[in-house]
Every structure is written in structure tokens, then in C-alpha cells.
Amino acid sequence: MTRTLADWLQYIERIHPRSIDMGLDRIRVVAQSLGLGRPGRAVITVGGTNGKGSTVAFIESIARAAGWKVGAYTSPHLLSYNERVRIDGADASDDALIDAFEAIEAARGDTQLTYFEYGTLAALWLFERAGLDLAILEVGLGGRLDATNLIDADVAIITTVDLDHQDYLGDDREQIGAEKVGIARAWRPLVLGDDDPPSSVLGHAYRIGAPTWRISNDFFFKALPSSLDADGNSLPARWQWREIGKRLELPAPQLAAPVQLRNAAVAIAALRALKELPRPLPRQAYSEGIANARVGGRLQRIERDGVEIVVDVGHNPQAARALADWIRASPARGRVIAVYAALSDKDAVGVVEAIAPVVDRWHLAGLLEAGPRGGDVDALAARLSGTAAADGMRHAHVAQALQAARAEAKAGDRVLVFGSFHTAASALESLARD
Predict the structure, then answer these.
(1) Which residue has the higher pLDDT, 259 or 398?
(2) Of 1-5, 197-201, 321-325, 411-415, which range is least confident?
(3) Which residues of 258-286 are buried (b: 16+ CB within 10 A; e: fewer)?
(4) What span, in angstroms and rounded, lies between the C-alpha atoms of 340 and 348?
(5) Cis check: omega of the bond before 331, within 30 degrees of 0
(6) Nearest-angstrom CA–CA distance, 393 and 210
């Protein structure tokens, strides 16, 4: 039977009775049947609560600026499944993904795979055939039992550890950290982007002999003061990355939030932690890579009729705090009007409380299109009872909420759309139709 990519995606969504079934036994069996080897000459695995996608983008951009052939596997996607698998900066084609799914289907026999396991195997299958210098794998959920942990990474990254997915990972940072640090390997570097990592992370790294590269301890970053040229014009913003014996002065990334300097610093540390470089990594590649890194849905800014619309995938309290920091650092001339829609298993109250001090008006939206984890707007408003957002205007869909927020906004106002990948995707699709 001939299947389109859409057919395959529908098929792999329904062949396993559970959408999440953590563990490596099933995927390992199918990987062996496929004869999978290493996805690249070097492998970096990126885990953590927030900042994974941006960190992947920085690593990918720097390595490609150095002339490396790079593959990046990320999730979830915003607008198209093809975004999840990139080779040399290009999304995988429908035909390539179909070939991979057909190979997996032929190899799996009676083994049931989840949607994410299918996707991970497809990426690994395509990467191995591409002859990559570097494969970058973004962890989907946790780390220890995530499908990406099938591969022994040369460098592992944990960007941050905070509360999210507590149903699967535990109720506090120590338990969550113990799951995330499972991507570390004995005697191979572990790069940590938290100033204060949980003791569970540090203890595990010590027990297995994984050398840690800790931000604000083994490597450092800071924004440099603004400067003027001879004519008094402002020069482009710059920042500094350093470790003992090495210092880089770099352009500010296009990814705008203050937290992106931290993500960029972690990306640089991971590349420098590689014991054997597939190819040389000249100093200029760091500058070019940082300046050119892009990732959709992270403070993605679009202007319409003098109103700045900002779309962000932030969906937990830590991400909301980072959003609030950015708003304070880059205040709007007018009001901040928020459009918020969240999945039912997220800490909506914690998110709203983190960002409410910098929001003037609220519009809430449902996410019925997100399936079982979605919900209608009345359920979201009930969860938010007692918060600043509870009395916000209610809309069935994100597109309707965005339309209402834009109708209310005046020139100089900022409309902030956030809460999940589904929220961001709906907003971007709506804006694309304008």
C-alpha cells in the first residue's frame, strides 16, 4: 500500500495504545533489526527543561559555519513534521521520511513503537545514510528513558532543570534531574547550563566519571557594554564567552531574549568539549554561527499596523519567567496584551503568576485541536481561577483570540502569544493568512 507522509503520520499515531510509553527496550530491538550504527562521526545530545531547541540551533549554526555536515533532530514541530529532521540546514523531504518509515515498518515485526520512537528511528536512519560530521539529538521527554538515549553521545547537555512533566519525571528538581542526567555517559563530557544544578545531576556525573562543564564555574558569559563609533553611532551589541585560557568576543544573537546568551554559551561549551573534532572549528565560525542561528516560535516577532506581535512556545513557569525578563529588558511603548492557551497537563497557574506583573490585558483560548491533552477555554479559565488571567476574554481558538487582541491593540502595543507549541503554531498559521 502506497502511503503519503500524512498517511504515515496518522498511522504511527495510532498503532501504539499509548502516546507516551517510556523505555528503550522496544526501540533498541528495532534499531538492531535495522542495523543502525552511529548517526554521525560525533554526536551531541541536548536535554533539559527549557532552551533545548535554541541550544540545538546554536550548535547547528556554528558547526555549519565551520563547513561541517550537520543533522539536527528536534521536537515537537511548529508547522510541519519535516522540521523535526534537518540535514545541512534543510528539512527532510516527504519522500525521505516515507523511505525511513517504510524501512522501520519492515524491520519492527510485532514490536509496538510510539509516534516519537518512530520519528527518532527515522531521524537516525536518515542521518546514518547522510554521512554526517555531527548529529545533534534533542531529548523529547526526560532523558534516561527517552528514545534519543539509544545513542551514546560524545557530549551531553542539560540546559536547565525545572518543574515540567511531573507525571513522568518526578515532583521536584532532584527527581527530575535524576531522569535528565541519564543521557550522560561515563568519561564523556556533560555540559550544564544551570548555575545551581540539582545534586542528583552532579552526583550521577561523579559516580560515572563524566567530567562536567558547568556554566559560571568552568565557562562564563556576559553582555558587553554598548559602544559608539567615531561618529557617535551605536555599534552592534556584543557579548563575551570565556574559559580558562580562551576568550571569544561575539555578536549578539538574533534570538532576542536575555536567556539566549546562556543557551549560546552552553552551545559553544559543548562544541569545545568534543574530544575529537570531525573537522577544524575556526574562531570565525563561532561568530558567524551565533549571528545566523534561527529557530521559530522563540520570541518570533512580527509587526502589523504598528503593533508588535510576539509568538513564543513557552509553556512552563521557568519559560514564563524568561519571557517576563525579556519584556522588562525590552519594554513596549504601549500595553502588553497576552493571548494564552495551554495544554491541560501544564502548570497554567504557575505560568500566569510568573508573567502577570508585565501583562496589562489577557485573552484566553482553547486548544481542542491538540487532542486529549488540549481542552476548551472554559476549562482553562476554571484552572486559572484567582489569577490575573481568570477574567480575560475567552475564545474557542487561538486564531480568534489573536484577532481580538489585534483589534484591541493600538500602535505601540505588544501582543504576546504563548503557552505551547500548538498555541504558537496556530498564531503563525493565522498570521500567514493575513
Answers:
(1) 398
(2) 1-5
(3) ebbbbbbbbbbbbbbbbeebbeebeeebb
(4) 9
(5) no
(6) 51
